[in-house]
């Protein structure tokens, strides 16, 4: 890869939430974007907002509590319009999961995706470090690496996993549960923010720094 890993710390970090692993039989519920320089900025694209202004105010308040300087919430259908303005993208396992999901559910984004300069942390960073025996984890799942490399997630989502995200989405979709959508969005925001922190830690591992968390 032409760019150094450090240069990708300025990129847009992307993560998605879904109701399953196969895009043919699963919903794309939301897309989370995060970028950080002097500010911490996030953008959420939500599948169905139900025109809930109160939910958006709650989300903005929670994002401020989490330390985000700016949060923008959009309908999911707006993402193909905005995708051409992205250039460098960072994901975790995006080659196998996030990007195929986006291409299936939002066909209008496919042309823009071909122009993205994409760093997949799983493929381009974590696997090579494991192969060089610099990363000695039980597996390379995202949450495992968060724990092993001491990436701090907010306590409200620290124990949450993918099945919890599906449950929260269903509560929002069918019951219009505002707190459920807020919790789901906080989970997504923390995952994408922590993915950037994970890249920082993996760059440190590449330099020879050691992190341990009991594994």
Oligomer: single chain
Number of self-contained structural domains: 1
The major β-sheet equals: 6 strands, mixed
* Apparent shape: globular
CATH architecture: 2-Layer Sandwich
What is the level 1 CATH name? Alpha Beta
CATH superfamily (homologous) name: Ribonuclease H-like superfamily/Ribonuclease H
Summarize this entry quickly.
Helix content is 43%, strand content 17%.
Description:
It is built from 8 helices and 6 strands; from the N terminus they run βββαβαβααβαααα. The mean pLDDT is 90. It has one domain: Nucleotidyltransferase, domain 5. The protein has a 6-stranded mixed beta sheet. The protein has 215 residues and is an alpha/beta fold.
Q: Which structural traits does this protein have?
A:
globular, Nucleotidyltransferase, domain 5, alpha/beta, 6-stranded mixed sheet, 215 residues, 43% helix
Topology at a glance:
Elements: E1 12-18, E2 28-36, E3 40-46, H1 53-65, E4 70-75, H2 79-82, E5 88-91, H3 98-105, H4 110-115, E6 117-120, H5 121-131, H6 142-148, H7 162-175, H8 178-207
Parallel strand pairs: 1-5, 3-4, 5-6
Antiparallel strand pairs: 1-2, 2-3
Helix pairs in contact: 1-8, 5-8, 7-8
